[in-house]
Write a structure and sequence with these properties.
19 helices; 4-stranded mixed β-sheet; 3 domains; mainly alpha
């Protein structure tokens, strides 16, 4: 065991687990997935010209992420898969570093390893690891900052403390250029660490100086981004009635959090059996939480089609992978009603167990209680303000028309994770039980399945587009989902026609309406070069019925039947 710790084998195991699960899922498809299509094309432009050029779809700065993607293009030639492999590399590094960070937070090696595996083998993390989205890149910035701050707090000399504070600021500043919200490390987490080190005057002065330098770097980057043509500004203002929508969106997030932490939260279920009175109190507390969340949903006029997990339903959904890409018809369902019911009860049960373990008893603190208030206080002071600041910055996004996606909770989850594991270790039992290995394994299998099914779905759309193109129908005449449409538009224009673009001021041009009777294409105003006469659909009878093209079938692991995509007509038939 000592040899394994010496060579950091647990961290290496976590990194390799991400690689193996990703490769088993066959994550390749030559088209954009969610937001990453325009990002991939930006990396291609950088590799070809040596400069960054935004194309009307990037609210994140992307920064070093683009250079890493461009390096992969120069090494392996351009393909969507080659660029996405840069994210997988970063995801592996993040997994290994997260394991070491949890150990630094006072969690034993076994629990830190299992906790990391539970997080990085979840469907949310694994799916984002094989796309070119900015979430994993931004997550690395948060993890490296946390690691540096913990090393600074535990260092034995002032010189070493200063070194690790410089590391935390430098790493967070650099890696945060991919996703600006990750700069909360410099702006909040490092000052929190300095507060804990305030009695060491030399460290405090040096840390304040380097934090100021990091803040100036962030300001310079934001000013640079502000003047880049076709970049999308992030609006932090609340519009009218935005507060109600924000409350509704946060209610969804509250209901979703136990589900997203399921491999860990489910380990608290046995706590319900320890004390009947505590369990009844936990039921009252949880019922209050869910009732308030439900009232906020109704108050915010949110449409709640079901009370079953997952609630947010962006990346982790009842369908395959990222969802249906807003194609016609109903996407095939992977998680049945019974499966979602079981997941919902498991999530609520875990939450009840966690609440029950927190409530006091007549016999004193629960569990074995090796409570160390100084370490717990340090962890809360270091991570708590960052979690609060991150949540506050989500409010404008929650109030916007787009709302909160489950991937926005990723950075928050990695802040909460060490707190949950530390609490379990100190108040429930010293190590995570062997049953957690089974839960994590089942989670990993499900993650591999949904990632495979997602890419299989996207490959089917690429195949269908090739079939239509072979019939001499140009891509501009086909609605193949918004991700594919964006790539088509960017082949005919240097930017998407987004009204949110502020520079240059005349970038947005109102899109002429489609011919009367045309089926609606998603974001048609952003793709003025597309005038579809055909569309891709799950339902062959959508719009004006089937077009003369063969359907494409795609494999769906753990599903009762394969998926099928059809081409349908978007224009009404011409009357003789």
């Amino acid at each position: 065991m000592q040899l394994a710790c010496r060579f950091r084998l647990p961290a290496l195991l976590c990194a390799l687990a991400v690689l193996v699960c990703a490769l088993v899922s066959h994550p390749y498809a030559e088209m954009g997935i969610a937001d990453d299509g325009p990002y991939v094309l930006m990396a291609q432009h950088l590799a070809r010209t040596g400069r960054i050029a935004y194309n009307g779809w990037a609210a994140p700065m992307l920064g070093w992420q683009l250079y890493l993607g461009a390096a992969c293009i120069n090494l392996f030639s351009f393909s969507f898969t080659a660029v996405r492999m840069s994210t997988l590399l970063v995801a592996m590094v993040t997994a290994g570093l997260l394991e070491r960070t949890l150990v630094l937070a006072g969690i034993n090696e076994r629990s830190a390893t299992l906790g990391t595996l539970a997080f990085v083998l979840s469907p949310l993390y694994l799916m984002l690891s094989v796309t070119y989205m900015s979430d994993i890149f931004g997550l690395l910035a948060v993890v490296t900052c946390t690691y540096g701050c913990l090393r600074a707090l535990q260092a034995s000399t002032d010189r070493t403390r200063i070194f690790w504070l410089c590391f935390a600021v430098g790493a967070n500043g650099f890696f945060g250029t991919a996703r600006q919200i990750a700069w909360l490390g410099v702006l909040v987490m490092v000052p929190s660490a300095l507060y804990l080190l305030r009695e060491r005057r030399r460290v405090l002065l040096a840390g304040a100086a380097v934090t100021l330098a990091g803040t100036l770097f962030i300001f310079a980057c934001m000013q640079w981004l502000k003047h880049q043509p076709y970049s999308i500004p992030e609006n932090l203002a609340l519009h009218r009635w935005g507060g109600l929508r924000a409350l509704s969106q946060f209610s969804h997030a509250i209901l979703e959090l136990p589900f997203l932490t399921l491999p860990i939260i489910v380990l608290f279920i046995p706590e319900l059996l320890r004390d009947v009175r505590r369990s009844l109190k936990a039921v009252v507390v949880a019922s209050t939480i869910y009732s308030l969340a439900g009232l906020l949903l109704l108050w915010g006029h949110a449409h709640v089609p079901t009370l079953l997990e997952p609630y947010l339903g962006d990346w982790v959904t009842k369908s395959d992978g990222y969802g249906s890409s807003l194609l016609g018809g109903e996407a095939p369902v992977l998680l049945s009603i019974s499966s979602r019911t079981a997941l919902t009860f498991a999530s609520i049960g875990g939450l009840l167990g966690l609440i029950a373990s927190v409530l006091p008893t007549r016999d004193g603190p629960p569990g074995h209680c090796n409570y160390q208030p100084i370490q717990w206080r340090q962890l809360c002071i270091l991570l708590g303000p960052c979690a609060v600041a991150y949540t506050l910055l989500l409010i404008p996004r929650a109030a916007s028309r787009d709302g909160i996606f489950d991937r926005y909770l990723l950075e928050l989850l990695v802040i909460v994770l060490p707190c949950i594991l530390w609490y379990y270790q100190e108040w429930v039992q010293p190590r995570l039980p062997s049953a957690s290995i089974l839960v994590i394994s089942v989670t990993a299998i499900y993650s591999v399945v949904v990632v495979h099914n997602m890419f299989s779905f996207y490959r089917a759309r690429v195949a269908l587009a090739a079939e239509i193109r072979a019939a001499d129908v140009p891509d501009t005449r086909v609605d193949n989902g918004w991700e594919y449409n964006f790539a088509v538009e960017l082949r005919h224009s240097d930017h998407l026609n987004d009204p949110d673009i502020e520079s240059p001021r005349d970038a947005y041009v109102p899109t002429p309406p489609l011919p009367a009777g045309t089926c609606n294409a998603f974001s048609n105003r952003m793709t003025p070069h597309l005038r579809p006469i055909y569309g891709v659909s799950f339902d062959p009878n959508a719009c004006y019925g089937p077009a003369p093209f063969a359907p494409v079938h795609y494999t769906r692991w753990l599903a009762s039947s394969p998926g099928t995509l059809y081409v349908v007509r978007y224009l009404p038939p011409v009357k003789p």
